[in-house]
Amino acid sequence: MQKKRFFAALWALIRPYWASEQRGTGLILLATVVGLALLGVWLEVQFNTWNREFYNTFEAKDQAEFYRQLGTFTLLAVLYIINGVYRTYFQQMLMIEWRSWMTDRYLADWLKDRAYYRLQLLDKGTDNPDQRIADDLNAFVDLTLTLGLGLLSAVVTLVSFIGILWGISEAAIFFGVEIPGYMVWVALLYAIAGTWLTHVIGRPLVGINFNMQRVEADFRFSLVRLRENAEGVALYRGEAGEYANFRARFASVISVWWTKMLKQKQLGWFQSFYGQAAIIFPFVVASPRFFSGAMPLGGIFQIASAFGQVQGALSWFINAYGSYANWKATVDRLTGFTEALQRAREEAERLDGDRMDGAPAVLALEDLELALPQGKPLLAKTTLQLKQGESVLITGPSGAGKSTLFRAIAGIWPYWQGKIALPKGATLLFLPQKAYLPIGSLKQAVAYPMDEGKVAEEAAREALAAVGLEHLAGDLAREENWAQLLSGGEQQRLAIARALLNRPDWLFMDEPTAALPDDAQAALYRLLKEKLPATTLVSIGHRDGVAEFHARRIQWEGQVLSSG
Fold this sequence. Notes:
By secondary structure, the protein is of the alpha/beta class. It has 18 helices and 14 strands. Strands 8-11-12-6-13-14 form a six-stranded mixed sheet, sandwiched between helices.
C-alpha cells in the first residue's frame, strides 16, 4: 500500500509537465537525449566487437590488421566523445526546461490563496518551503533524468549484450547438467545477490538524506535570519546568543553527516568489493575454455567485455543506489510539501466562516467569532457594519485581537466563524505596522503591490515628497534591500506613499505611523484625508492624536466590540 502511494505521488510530480502546453520542447529534447543514449549503447556493442578483433591481432601477430583496428578505434572513440558531450548538453537543456516549468508551478501553488501564510499557521511540520522549491526541485529534475536515462541505457545494454554473451559463452556442465549460455546465468546471479545486499545495507540512506536536506536548510535559514535582522541583533548585542544558535543548528548538520558517512562507508565497502570482483570474475570463469584452446585470445577479451556490460546493466541499481537514496528523499520532501499545501487549503476552508461579496458600500460582520490557533477565543459573536466614507478607529489593549480582525477581513486568518460580507467591487489595501519592502528598485517598493511599470515616475516622486521622503525621490531606479537601508519611520512613510499611489476604496491601517512622532503622524493622516477623500479609513491605534482624524470609534473590551 505504501509503495502504491509513493508511485501515485511520484506520477503526480512527473506527469503535469509532460501533459502541459509547454511539453513540446521537452518531448523533442527527451527524444534527442534518448536517441543519443541508444547511440551510446550501439557504440558499446561496436567496441565489444572491436575488442575481439583487436586482441586477435596480437595472437596472429598481424601488424597491418593491428593498425587498421587502431583506425577503427579512433573513429569509434571520436563518435563516442561527440555523443557523450551532446547527450549531456541536451540533457541539461531538458533539465532547465522541466525545472523552469515546475518552479513556476510550485511558486504559483505556494502563493495561491495565500498558502505560504496559512502553511505557517496550520502545518508547522513542513519545514523550509523555500528550500524545497529552490533546491529539491532542482535535485528532483536532475536525478529523475539521470536515473531514468541511466535505467533506460541499462535495459538497452542488457538486451544488446545478453545475446552476444549467450552466443559466445556456449554451454557448461555443472553436476552433470548442461547449462546453455552459462555466463549469462552467472552474471544474473552475481547481480541479483549484489542488488539485494546493496538494498539491505543502503536502505537507511533514504531517511538520512531526508534529514540531511532538512537540517542543512534549517542552518542556512538561521544565517539568512541574522542578515535580515542585523540591526536588531546588533542593538541587543545578541551575538553570543546567535552564535550559540548557529552552533546548535550546525551540530545537527554534523551529526547527520556522521550518520550518513558511516552508512556510506558500509555501502562503499560492499560496492568496492563488488566492483573489483566483477573485473576479474569473467576471466576466471572463462579461462578454462581459453587454456583448453577452445577460445582465442580475442574471444576471452570479448566475453569479458560482454560480461561486464551485462553485469553492469544488471547491477545498475547497485551503482546508482546513492543517487537513488537522495532522489527518494527528494521525492518524499516534494510530495510532502504538495500534500501540506493541499491540507492547508482544506483546513482553511473547514475553519473559515462564510466570506462573500455584500452591498457595494458596506462592510458587514455578522456573528463573527475569532480565535487563536490553540483555540483560545479572541472575539465573541459580533455583528457590525462599516459604511463607505466613514473613518473608523479601533482601539483596545495589546493582544486583544485587533490585528487578527484585519487578517480575517483580508482573508488570511483561518480561525474564525460567522459571516464577512465585503463591499462588492471595492479595492482594499492593508498597511501593517511593519511595512513589507521587496528587494529591488525603490520604485518597485513604493508601487507595491502594483506593477511598477504601471506607475509614472513623476507620480512616484510626488508621493515620496508628499510623505517627507523627497531626499529619496531621485533614487527610484536604485536597487537595494530597502528594509535594511531605511529606518522604521522612513519605512512607514513609504507605506503611506504606497497608499497614495494605489488609491484604494478602503484603507485598513494597523498602527502604520507608530514609529513616528505625533506631529509627523498628524501630518500624514491629514495628507491621506486630503489626497484620498473618497477612501474609507479604518485604523488601529493607541495614541490619542489619531482619534481626531476618525469620526467613529470602536472599542475592543474583553471579547466584545462596542461601537461609538
